[in-house]
Structures are given as structure tokens and as C-alpha cells.
Amino acid sequence: MTEPVELGPKPDCPACAAWTADHKTGRYEPGCEDCMARAIARSPAAWLMVTAQTDVEIKQAVRRAWPERSGHGRTLVWKWIELLGLKKAAP
Ligand SMILES: [Zn+2]
Questions:
Q1: Residue 48 C-alpha to ligand 1 middle, in angstroms?
Q2: In the 8-state DSSP scheme, what is residue 8?
Q3: SS3 20
Q4: Residue 67, C-beta contacts closer than 8 angstroms, at least 6 positions apart
């Protein structure tokens, strides 16, 4: 069973709204998937992956955040990595 992937920040999430207004905000809302994905995309684990050093840490972070749906989490994290301009294309 696959659930549809929510694209774009959730309109009812104050932290995502804050990010839309100011990309430098460090706010994250508990329970918001976009916030979780944004937090991982901004973490050292993501930096290690986009700089082709290791993807072990980001895989662990995604599995921790989405234990049952790591594929969905990976899609969301990649969306944020691209939104944040860290990498142009998913591998
Ligand atoms: Zn959010």
C-alpha cells in the first residue's frame, strides 16, 4: 500500500509557512513530514551524501523518521535537498 506523496510545504504547518517566508528559519513542527524531511536535508548526514562521502547516515536518519515508510521519507528528503539547492538531481 502506497500513500500519495505530499508535495510542497503543508499549508497548515506554521514552521513550513515560516520557511516559505524566510528560508533561513530553523523552525520545525513536530509531526510535520515536511519539517522532518527539511531537518534531515539540512543535517550533516545529508551533506555527507550530497558530497558523495557516505549515504549510510542519511539512510539511518530516514529510517528513524519513517520506520514503516522509508521510501516515502526518502522521496520527501530528496525533495527538500533539491528545494534547498543542495543537489540538482536524485541519483
Ligand atoms: Zn512543517
A1: 24
A2: S
A3: helix
A4: none
Residue 84's identity, in one-letter code, is: L
Ligand 1 center to residue 2 CA distance, Å?
Answer: 21
Side-chain-side CA neighbours of 14 within 13 Å: the count stands at 3
Which residues have CB under 8 Å from 60's CB, separation 6+?
A: 45
Give residue limits of the domains in the chain.
32-89
Q: What distance in angstroms lies between residue 28's CA and the mean position of ligand 1's atoms?
A: 6
pTM for this predicted structure: 0.81
**Distance separating alpha carbons of residues 69 and 36, to the nearest angstrom:** 13
Query: For 13-72, how does the pLDDT look when each residue is reduced to its tens digit (9 = 90+)?
Result: 999 999 989 888 889 998 899 999 999 999 999 999 999 999 999 999 999 999 999 999
- In sequence order, what DSSP letters do the residues of 23-80 get, joined into one string? TT-----TT-HHHHHHHHHTSHHHHHHHTTS-SHHHHHHHHHH-SS-HHHHHHHHHHH
Cell digits for 22? 524566510
